Amino acid sequence: MVSYLYLYDCRHARQSNARRVAFTKELYGYTYTWRTKSEIKEKRKLGLLDECLGAEAVADSAIIVPDEYRTLFDSLFSMYQDILKFRVYEIIREV
Questions:
Q1: Backbone angles phi, psi at 37, to 5 degrees
Q2: Sheet of 62-66, strands arranged across
Q3: How far is CA 31 from the centre of its chain?
Q4: What is the pLDDT of residues 13-51, one digit of tens each?
Q5: Domain that holds residue 9
Q6: How many domains does the chain have?
Q7: CA 89 to CA 47: how far, in whole Å?
Q8: Which of 13, 11, 45, 15 shows the shortest CA–CA distance to 27?
Q9: Mean pLDDT of 48-71
Q10: What percent of the chain has pLDDT over 90?
């Protein structure tokens, strides 16, 4: 099974906080809450890592992605290429 390692850095995004937060939410998902008349409700919005079986964050700014989901991650990373510096490596085998 071929996998890919995505290494990324948002360092340049410090000036553009809103874009960095949007990228992080799309990648990792987030939980939001709202108040109703009787209670506070909570819901989780799934991120790309939640939706793609086998994709996982292995360290800060490092993600392993199975081959079948590579196009989804390539699309996300290219959408935010103005704030990201990233590299993608093909993992041939694990030692």
A1: -65, -30
A2: 56-59, 62-66, 3-9, 85-91
A3: 15
A4: 566 688 888 999 999 999 999 999 999 999 999 999 999
A5: 3-91
A6: 1
A7: 22
A8: 45
A9: 95
A10: 75
Q: With b meaning 16 or more CB within 10 Å and e meaning fewer, what string describes 32-63?
A: eeeeeeeeeeeeeeebbbeebeebeeeeeeeb
pTM of the predicted model as reported, rounded to 2 decimal places? 0.84
CA distances from 66 to 4, 56, 62, 81, 88 (A): 6, 9, 14, 21, 12
- Among 94, 91, 28, 30, which residue's Cα sits nearest to residue 65? 91
Distance separating alpha carbons of residues 40 and 55, to the nearest angstrom = 32
Which two structure tokens, joined as six digits, stand for 71? 């196009």
